Amino acid sequence: MDNNKINAIVAHFEVKGEVSDLQTYGSGHIHETYRLKNKQTDQPDYILQKINHSIFTNVDALMHNIETVIDHLQLKGKSAASQDTLSLVRTKAGKSYVQDADGSYWRMYLFLKGTKGYDLIENDKQAREGGRAYGQFIADLSDLNPSKIHEILPDFHNIQHRLNQLDDAIARDPEQRLKDLNPEIDFVKARAERMKTIKQMGDAGKLPLRITHNDTKFNNVLLNEKDEAQCVIDLDTIMPGYIAFDFGDAVRTIINTAEEDEKDLEKIQLNMGLFKAFADGFIEKTRTILNEDEVDSLSQSCLLLPYIMGVRFLTDYIDGDHYYKIHSPHHNLQRARAQFELVRKLEGKFDDIQQTIQHISEKHHATGNS
Ligand code: ATP
Ligand code: MG
Ligand code: MG
């Protein structure tokens, strides 16, 4: 980035002290993220982000969501877990973002010092802390009316929508890839009804619509130097949703001993220890708000989220790889196969997963933890 351009953007924001030393930062895949260091050591450092405008076309609605959630969390005071809340830096015009001369949109956060995000979980303590952080986050938002939040990416976790997209790609088959995909398509079809369980519970009014994070990867929680959860970040996909989505998506990456796109399916195994630690932290912080149907939905979600991701990868493969960046010609198929293998493994352990969740939830119910 050209320094003059950056200085012009920074000049729009209410920055304290004097910042310099712009560096790209973190391992995010969506926005361009930079860190700005302060020359005055008693003043904050900052995170500057160029918002990905092709994914988030309505920046005003996006920033409305983030502001609403941050205001709510800050009004409540720091949560019981003594976590921080992300803080937006306002522009001099009092807004939460600015558009530059090229038409790009920028926003700024206070940099959270002494924190670290992990792409891969290393131990049970981190898993439990991650669970606590996301659990506390949802609990803190449980009294914010979901109608105040825009559905910024409509139908994001709607299984019916994802299956419809797959059917549509199958009907078009633009790359003539279908001929080799019978096993994968059979896999999807055989499970389609079961995977609608959470949607049906929701449609029947059994699962309350909450404000959920919707991108609960482990690196969207920052931990402090003692590996304690410090702050939930990356609030772009905050939307009305079911709590199961956040639980299942986190478990999808935490329980898998292999990468999301592992080619060697033998390497895809379940780490039940990390799963238990995450579930324990998550349920500890949400037990008092969860109803019994929601507790049931948590185990279903462990199957649903990898299934949805597999369906999305398969759809993109059939479609000709337009959505996900690929690093080899059949990358999306490899990703889909890895997710379906994970579903298979999870099905094999489903009773165990269900009993673990039940047991943890009874434990926290009995102790009245919140
Ligand atoms: P993703 O691929 O997870 O969607 P993203 O492109 O949306 O990522 P963020 O998660 O918002 O970007 O930020 C990218 C990285 O920058 C984070 O993983 C984290 O390491 C770091 N980061 C973001 N905000 C802060 C902050 N306020 N303080 C310190 N580090 C931060
Ligand atoms: Mg992120
Ligand atoms: Mg993100």
TrEMBL record:
Residues 22-255 form the Aminoglycoside phosphotransferase domain. InterPro entries: Aminoglycoside_PTrfase, Kinase-like_dom_sf, Pseudomonas-type_ThrB. This is Desulfatase. SUPFAM superfamilies: Protein kinase-like (PK-like) (SSF56112).
